[in-house]
Amino acid sequence: MRAMVRGGTSVRGARRTLVGVSESSSEPVRPGRAVGVRDVAALAGVSRQTVSRVLNDHPDVAPETKARVVQAMHELGYRMNNAARALGTRRSRTLGVLASDALQYGPSRSIAAIEIAARAAGYWVSAAFADAGDDESVISAVEHLIAQGVEGIVVVAPHARTLRALDTLRVGVPVLTLHSAGRGPRGLSVDQGAGARLAVAALADTGHIRIAHLAGPADWLEAESRAEGYATELAHRGLEPALMLIGDWTARSGYEATGAVLAAGVTAVFAANDQMALGLLGGLHEAGVAVPEAISVVGFDDVPDAAFYWPQLTTVRQDFEELARRAVASLIGEADAAASGLAPVAPVLVPRRSVAPPPRRPESRPRRPAS
Fold it and tell me: Mind telling me which InterPro entries this protein's record contains (predicted)?
């Protein structure tokens, strides 16, 4: 039996005779069996080739025909098989994600955002993880993704050594790096230097002149860019760096920096991420130092918990969703990718309650002349 939808017969009306028809159009669709292209074609009253054209966004399909096929897919609960689609189109519609450090907040948020942006564009994501300190691990991860036929790779590469390992490879598909502070010809990032300048400006505009920086690890490109932004904004205002400390992104390292911060006599600290700011807030509280009355603190990232620190943390927000959208658009060649290009995503300052004017110094009183 070959069923056709004629004249004004709707898909729903045709379903009464066609639902339950298998791919061979001779046996019922058994419960639990995956619905195939032939089932969709039979219900929509079109050929299998037409269904394939709809699945592959072919331009030569009439709008009403496409609508009928989409409705049939919806009614049958059809799920597209990516492997089968790849065989028919020689395209995997899959993007690779190579991550050399997925434990920190920024990289982990970016990986999740890439998957969401790719799925919205009709693409799948395949991830591979590598040890940033091992060139062979990075190379092996890239080769693993290439073997899966990915059409492009997003490298979440916060370390300079990961970029150096990539430079030794001939990948053969477009490659774009995130969290590399915009380094290299295909680097896309939130503008780290601009974000650091926003943080320092928030403190300086309130009257602080002795501002310390609790930086991230020296081998992280974004930590380097945030430290450069800190120094640049101070120089712009004619100020000198009051104190530079190196942390490791953890709250513990922020807590352990408390003693040096207090010994330096600074009135404000720009922490390179919110976790270190959290540790510093805890250390200052334990030392009996009030924030922001005695020392102001600004963080970076705007983690979801930052609004619930005590006090609520002033910080710099990174738009990881926009970063991922631009990355995916650039790799799959969408028209609007040309408009945004690889321009850095602008950060945003989020003012809260951890910043206040510096404490006033006691005014010196003139001595009374000796009688």
Answer: HTH_LacI (IPR000843), LacI/GalR-like_sensor (IPR046335), Lambda_DNA-bd_dom_sf (IPR010982), Peripla_BP_I (IPR028082)
Name the residue ranges covered by the structural domains of the chain. 11-88, 93-188, 192-318
The string of pLDDT tens digits covering residues 116-160 is: 999 988 899 999 988 877 888 888 888 899 888 899 999 887 877
Q: What is the pTM of this model?
A: 0.74
Q: How far apart are CA 307 and CA 168, in angstroms?
A: 43
Which amino acid is located at 21 in the chain? V
CA 74 to chain centroid, in Å, comes to 31
The CATH number assigned to the domain with range 192-318 reads: 3.40.50.2300
Sheet strands (E) in the chain: 94-99, 124-129, 152-156, 175-178, 187-188, 211-215, 243-246, 268-271, 296-298, 315-317, 348-350
Tell me the fold of 11-88: 434 Repressor (Amino-terminal Domain) (1.10.260)
Contacts of 344 (CB under 8 A, 6+ apart): 182, 188, 189, 190, 191, 194
CA 22 to chain centre: 43
The half-sphere exposure of 95 on its side-chain side, counting CA atoms within 13 A, is 29
Report the CATH architecture of 93-188.
3-Layer(aba) Sandwich (3.40)
- Two domains, one topology: 93-188 and 192-318: yes
- Residue-wise pLDDT for 48-102, tens only, equals 888 877 876 777 888 889 889 888 888 887 766 554 454 444 567 899 999 877 7
What secondary structure letter does DSSP report for 260? H
Q: Closest Cα to residue 220, out of 156, 130, 166, 303?
A: 156
pLDDT digits (tens, 9 = 90+) for 290-326: 999 999 999 999 999 999 999 999 999 999 999 999 9
